[in-house]
């Protein structure tokens, strides 16, 4: 079973010209990379240019892809019967994810935007989960402060909203 | 569109910095992005019906953030670290909806008052109404809270489209609120909901489903986990189901009577796919359905499985059959291509007027439609070669034979 498969690397090039080399299979976590390779491009030495994503952000994305690819590959190689180990590995990966995404807001936005553009569903979900976590259990004004959302309603709109759905205002009930 | 043009631009001048490289050599297995840890171990293709049963959340459309001609040029990682910039509101709807999906639904409802950007997102999220009780239970948000919230949302948003409704509870569930749930189902049916998913795995006692479920006329996909069906005994006080467009029926840990199940199978004219797992309250199933194409289940506790009249049935797979004492009788299923799992425990096997009981007792009509057969046999025991050889005589046109070693 082991060995035999050639190691294929791809290069991703950030908007500020930094190159990142990673295993093609790890890069395939990105739907955008998948599409590019599928149409027969991106394997050359020039790599795949990733627009709008800086090297700083892309390096984090690459870390995520490598980690998840390695974890999936390890799980693939394991004996399928060992349920306990599978669950433990999964939990470990989730813990790694949570640690990984514990970032300041600006970085989190950058990664979310990058993951969305690259079509890395798992990473988009992880970022969304982190934002949701920041919003959970908070009142509307607390959320606005936390995330810098500007309240742009006119007083008529506000009255209308209040009439439409009175329960949304109450914090605890 | 995130289409990337490979040549030109800055890529030619790129320096090979190549910092981060995966530490491990590539493994032999193929990488698969899906981690369905809950799916059963690999079975013949027949059981793997991801199309029908893969209960995955809707996929987000890949966003066009900062893409070609996206205008604004925002969203790039190189934007100034903007204090006071409302970056979250720049995210596309699909991403914001994904954020909402991680928030308990009533908290999510509150985001409608954040700003005009957020005003209609919650309503949009109701297209796939995810009514899950927050877990772990939060202070003051028990079952009553969940029930009241859902009732409120349905009342406050009478014109918002809802396509699917997923309902998950813990603790005592809706045992004391059957009337509320009954009225939701009526409302949801009027609003054209196509997909209903009721998951009460962690409620005690197992709740009884309201009768309006049988009149959920817009329903195309029904999944029920750990509920009891309305009437248990025959004759039924309830009328025959009116589910004219139901295509997929997926029941697990459900208690229902034989007639109740058979009624569902035979009175749903569009039903194509049925999956039954751990159904209690019956020991025999007699299938009559003009439309049914695939029937999967464990059938481990059945005494008898009869396919009486199933002109369109193509796949019949019961993973628990070899361990049960079930008699399997296939009377009319001319299109049946895939059949499993048979084993020495399955006897007698009646195929049209062929009765197989270890050796062929009577052999007139053979199952020439079957192309794919799965069997489970213990290889350690003597006599099984003969059993298999005799069994195969019933299937003259077989193309694929799946053999698994049975546990016993």
From TrEMBL, chain A:
Pathway assigned to this chain's UniProt record: Protein modification; protein ubiquitination
GO biological process: ubiquitin-dependent protein catabolic process
Keywords per UniProt: Ubl conjugation pathway
UniProt KW Cell division keyword: no
Limits of the SKP1 component POZ domain: 9-68
Domain SKP1 component dimerisation, residue spans: 122-167
Family statement drawn from the similarity comment of this UniProt entry: Belongs to the SKP1 family.
Complex and partners: Part of a SCF (SKP1-cullin-F-box) protein ligase complex.
Task performed by this protein: Involved in ubiquitination and subsequent proteasomal degradation of target proteins. Together with CUL1, RBX1 and a F-box protein, it forms a SCF E3 ubiquitin ligase complex. The functional specificity of this complex depends on the type of F-box protein. In the SCF complex, it serves as an adapter that links the F-box protein to CUL1.
Protein's UniProt name: SKP1-like protein
Species per Swiss-Prot/TrEMBL record: Zizania palustris
UniProtKB/TrEMBL annotation, chain B:
Residue numbers spanned by region Disordered: 1-84
Stretches assigned to coiled coil: none
Cross-referenced CDD domains: F-box_AtFBL13-like
InterPro entries: F-box_AtFBL13-like, F-box_dom, F-box_dom-containing, LRR_FXL15/At3g58940/PEG3-like
Sequence ranges assigned to domain F-box in this UniProt record: 85-132
Pfam families: F-box, LRR_At5g56370
Extent of Gly residues compositional bias: 64-79
Taxonomy, superkingdom: Eukaryota
Protein name (database record): F-box domain-containing protein
Species in which this protein is naturally found: Zizania palustris
Lineage: Eukaryota, Viridiplantae, Streptophyta, Embryophyta, Tracheophyta
